[in-house]
């Protein structure tokens, strides 16, 4: 596997956007990691806590949809950086408000704000990196960029466990979202119009394909008509609709697993909360392998091929989770899951940018908004009820069956990459 060639600024923006995804990932992991502590303080059952988790996903639905569509209207390329900065400011405000909450309803509202910020940041951030790299290496760039999620899923619980050792879950919500501040500064420094023009000239000089026809000039302002048009274009595209359905299933399964993993580790495996917080992020140790590997493979063998293999890996890993009953078994199974856990998302993002290059933010915003928002809203309460009623084994069997159903929309999706790596018409 050869290292792709790109302009130095493209590599710098890849680092910046990867750090941005890491910050988003860590912010999302706070609630599942400190869930047992919240349950103890408020005396909530697993089902009730599931509805608390749903509030954050309602916010993600609103944020991803709104900010994703807004970013297309504001402008592509370097202009998206401003929309992303707004998202991270909203997330930081939501985290601080959550830490200050003294009632359950106030916490739900604050988590919804946090969800709006993190939900909006993801599609905008993916669109940004997709517009700073040549089309020929889009899967690689998005795959590397998305390693921020597995790294965040591992580092987040580690950082939070240190915070819990000296403070409370309130402190985690106060300090973690502030990690975005240095990343915002880097985005402002490097994500400029001048730098994007340099990158596009380099791509042309090296006889590669620019992600956009031209760097947009200043002066374009968003309009409601354009935003509505972008939504219509996305929902009429077969790949966009099938992507929403497929990612809905993956995100449902992920939310159901991660929300109650620390609970399973503390109650079934008998691990302390601090230790469980660290173990629950074990998938992050290997997540980067699947992200980069399958993203790069999809550039040459096709997006659908990669997604089929990833789905099979998800099913095996999900069924294996029912055998987690010791700390060692948890490490082994979750590390294996890491090879597949985040892999479908960058491949699907690349598919959407291939299919709708001029509406990338809108399509990914709709996919993340609808899939993440709706799956997160229903997944946690449903999983909580299944666990309380039938146990963890039934919980994982149900999730494996759901994952198998994702092969149906995958069959309908139209491939956007020829076997030789050339872009096909979506």
TrEMBL record:
InterPro entries per the UniProt record, alphabetical: MFS (IPR011701), MFS_dom (IPR020846), MFS_trans_sf (IPR036259), Sugar_transporter_CS (IPR005829)
SUPFAM superfamilies: MFS general substrate transporter
Major facilitator superfamily (MFS) profile domain segment(s): 13-418
Record's keyword annotation contains Nucleus: no
Keywords per UniProt: Membrane, Transmembrane, Transmembrane helix, Transport
Highest taxon listed in the record's lineage: Bacteria
Lipid bilayer topology: Multi-pass membrane protein
Transmembrane segments: 52-70, 82-100, 140-166, 172-191, 240-263, 269-293, 305-325, 331-352, 364-387, 393-413
Location within or outside the cell: Cell membrane
GO molecular function: carboxylic acid transmembrane transporter activity
Pfam families with a match to the protein in the record: MFS_1
The UniProt record lists the keyword Transport: yes
GO cellular component: plasma membrane
Name assigned to this protein: MFS transporter
Source species: Megasphaera hexanoica
Lineage: Bacteria, Bacillati, Bacillota, Negativicutes, Veillonellales
């Amino acid at each position: 596997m050869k290292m792709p060639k790109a302009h130095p600024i493209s590599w710098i923006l890849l680092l910046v956007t990867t750090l941005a995804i890491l910050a988003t990932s860590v912010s999302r992991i706070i609630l599942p990691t400190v869930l047992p502590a919240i349950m103890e303080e408020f005396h909530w059952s697993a089902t009730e806590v599931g509805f608390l988790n749903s509030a954050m996903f309602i916010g993600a639905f609103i944020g991803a949809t709104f900010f994703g569509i807004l970013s297309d209207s504001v402008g592509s390329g370097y202009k998206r950086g401003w929309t992303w900065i707004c998202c991270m400011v909203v997330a930081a405000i939501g985290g601080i408000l959550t830490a200050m909450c003294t009632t359950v309803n106030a916490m739900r509202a604050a988590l919804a704000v946090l969800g709006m910020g993190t939900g909006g940041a993801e599609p905008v951030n993916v669109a940004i990196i997709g517009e700073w790299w040549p089309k020929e290496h889009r899967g690689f760039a998005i795959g590397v960029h998305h390693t921020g999620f597995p790294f965040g899923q591992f580092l987040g619980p580690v950082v939070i466990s240190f915070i819990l050792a000296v403070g409370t879950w309130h402190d985690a919500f106060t300090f973690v979202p502030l990690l975005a501040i240095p990343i915002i500064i880097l985005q402002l420094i490097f994500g400029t119009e001048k730098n994007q023009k340099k990158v596009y000239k380099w791509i042309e000089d090296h006889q590669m394909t620019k992600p956009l026809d031209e760097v947009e000039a200043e002066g374009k302002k968003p309009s409601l008509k354009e935003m509505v048009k972008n939504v219509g274009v996305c929902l009429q595209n077969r790949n966009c609709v099938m992507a929403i359905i497929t990612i809905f299933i993956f995100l449902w399964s992920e939310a159901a697993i991660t929300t109650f993993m620390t609970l399973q580790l503390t109650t079934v495996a008998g691990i302390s909360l601090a230790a469980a917080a660290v173990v629950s992020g074990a998938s992050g140790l290997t997540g980067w392998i699947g992200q980069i590997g399958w993203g790069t493979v999809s550039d040459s063998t096709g997006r659908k091929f990669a997604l089929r293999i990833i789905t099979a890996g998800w099913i095996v890993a999900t069924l294996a989770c029912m055998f987690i009953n010791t700390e060692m078994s948890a490490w082994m199974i979750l590390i294996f899951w890491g090879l597949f856990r985040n892999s479908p998302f960058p491949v699907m993002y690349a598919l959407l940018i291939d299919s709708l290059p001029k509406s990338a933010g809108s399509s990914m915003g709709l996919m993340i908004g609808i899939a993440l928002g709706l799956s997160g809203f229903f997944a946690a309460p449903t999983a909580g009820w299944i666990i309380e009623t039938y146990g963890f084994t039934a919980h994982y069997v149900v999730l494996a069956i759901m994952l198998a159903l994702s092969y149906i929309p995958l069959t309908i999706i139209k491939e956007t990459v020829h076997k030789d790596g050339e872009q096909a018409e979506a």
